[in-house]
Each structure stands twice: as structure tokens, then as C-alpha cells.
């Protein structure tokens, strides 16, 4: 977060407790970390109410085992 803040971006860390992916709780222009059941995870971007994963471009739906951690 320090790097983004130093470049003029406003950032804040939010813990992903009971945050639901598809109920509008995650604001646009967010970097979201998803965690799998095995505790590994990856990052995606939310832009214009769509999630973009660097590995697969636009994500239409995440599996139920994905948890938002921050």
C-alpha cells in the first residue's frame, strides 16, 4: 500500500470478513485478494462492477470456495 499511496492513490486496507462478492459490497476500482480453501490466493481488480483476473481477463463468476481476504 505504501507504494500506491506514495504515487498519489488513496488506499485503505479492509479485512474480508463476511464480504460477499456479488452483493455490491466491494467498491469499484478495488484490488481484491481471493483465497481458496487451501489458503493460497490471488488478486483481481474490480472495475465497472466486473472482476478482472490477470490470468484469465474478465471473470464472470467465482466458485463458492473463493473467500475475500482483503
Topology, please?
Elements: H1 2-6, E1 30-35, E2 41-47, E3 50-53, E4 57-59, E5 67-68
Provide the descriptors you would attach to this structure in a database record.
mainly beta; 5-stranded antiparallel sheet; 70 residues; 1 helix; 7% helix
Kindly state the number of beta strands. 5
**DSSP helical segment count:** 1
- Helix-strand string: HEEEEE
Summed over residues and divided by their number, the pLDDT gives a mean of 71
How far the N terminus sits from the C terminus, by CA atoms, comes to: 12 Å
Share in helix = under 10%
Low-confidence stretches: none
Percent strand? 25-35%
Q: What is the rounded Rg?
A: 12 Å
Outline the structure in words.
The protein has 70 residues and is mostly beta strands. The protein has one domain. Helix content is 7%, strand content 31%. It contains one helix and five strands. Strands 4-3-2-1-5 form a five-stranded antiparallel beta sheet, with no helix packed on it. The model has no long low-confidence stretch (mean pLDDT 71).
Concise account of the structure shown:
This protein has 70 residues and is mainly β. It is 7% helix and 31% strand.
